Predict the structure.
Amino acid sequence: MAEWRGQYTTDVEAEEIIADAGGLAGLFATGMSLAGIPRTYDDPQEGDIAVISIDGEEAGAIFTGRRWAFVPERGWGAVSLDPSAILVRWRP
């Protein structure tokens, strides 16, 4: 996500960048494309990167092999998800 590094200093500015990209999935899609990381559609594998939906909110996540790890407002989380909650996924 080097494209946006240093481009914001507040949460509001970060949210504007995300909105301008069409949401977190759009922002990730641009970043992954710039990094040459391909999108994947098969079963999740350890290390896959995704945008997931949790309680109506989007979050970036990494698959641990068992759960999706992500950073919520406080701390970190790991969840098992219904496949429909995985919005888009890439495999480095």
In short: The first strand starts at residue 49 and ends at 54. Residues 2-90 form one domain. Residues 52 and 87 are 5 Å apart (CA to CA).
